[in-house]
Amino acid sequence: MWLQPAVRWVATAAARIYYRLEIDGPAVPASGSVLLVANHPNGLLDPALVVTAARRRVRFLAKSTLFSDLRLGWLVRGAGAIPVYRQIDDPGQSARNMDAFEAVFEALGSGDAVGIFPEGISHSKPSLSELKTGAARMALGTYERQRRSFPIVPIGLVFRRKDRFRSEALALLGEPVPWNDVAERGPEDRDAVRELTDRIGAALRRLTVNLDSWEDAPLVEWTEAIWAAERETYDDPGEQLARTNEIATVLAALRRQREATPEGGATAPATELAAEISIHRRRMLDLGLVPRDLGGSQRVDRAHRPYRMLDPLSALLAGAGFALFWLPYELTGRVSALARPSDETRSTYRFLIGVVVYALWVGGLTGLAGWLGGPVITLGVLLGVPLIGLIGLRIREHRREQRQVWRKVSRVLSRRELVSSLRAAQCDIADRLEALYDSWRRGEIVESSSVGTGIE
Fold this sequence. Notes:
Radius of gyration: 25 Å
CATH topology of the largest domain: Glycerol-3-phosphate (1)-acyltransferase
Number of strands: 7
CATH superfamily of the largest domain: Glycerol-3-phosphate (1)-acyltransferase
CATH class of the largest domain: Alpha Beta
Oligomer: single chain
Number of domains: 3
Helix content: 55-70%
């Protein structure tokens, strides 16, 4: 557990540097016992995002095989993780899981925050997997020993491109899961365990995107974007995610009705609307535009944001940051590819390999500075090189955003007739979406038990 005092700060730095992370939702209690439950799409970077969102030290459960992994074991052990012996890894060791439960009971009893991923394994599925009952049994078992409840806080992790450096990520915290009414029943009561597991699952589904397949994602996301643009409902991330899931649910119900009535019937207009949304998406992407660029007060032709060249100092920092870290960046990508990681561990490998490569690179530059200069220069290189890299990265991102806005303005102004037709089509789609949603609210569309769309 030698790393645990520094884990929070290291994890926060990792999450903030690797991703463009946004955190939203009610704060986790700063002290006292709390059980954090999260979805698990992204290997060992998921704990980093949970720690960053919680803003406090967290002890995690981890599969026992990680502790003996030569590449990751030192990190898992040093962070104070609690081993879980899964039957799929080694059936002969599953009896040792009682040790893990006891460790969790002790940690929660002493006022720690414990993090668990109830899905059991990291995965790249388009929806939340069926939850294991461990989180519920740990909560009920702790209550049985301590005779006091504590918050069970759900955290949804949502990624734009989880395997891409500096892509967008969201850590969305929910309200604590209610469980006082089942706390007294204990971990041996299977109905209580199942009930609490279902509540945890429902809470996590509200905080994550859930689809039948990844092929459904473009249609669902674009539909939500059209609605937000035309109705000017640029909500906080939680409300936006809730609307995305609601759209997925409505479209899934439509698909179910269509399968029940192959001749089309009432679902035919909705199928046509889905096709029109897909066509609208392709036409917009050809121009490099998104629905927000055409809708309401956010229209790109009203932005009038001039493209500004960087001032000399910013340009120097951007160029210096790129030049200083181009080689380790490329080397990190190439070495990571050699490991052939899965989709769930690609970011983990890139980050851990990057830590080593970048540390060696900065250390080499510092050593060279010490050989050529004195202590002051050495200290300046040790502190200044990482700082220049981070500042330069942010400047380049800001400049990229400015270029994108200017390109959008140029396209809109140069192709007014095409943009005008796209704007009219988008308004019409929004009106038809509203009518479709009203039908769903009136019960004319039966909600599906599964989520997803399949309407192409």
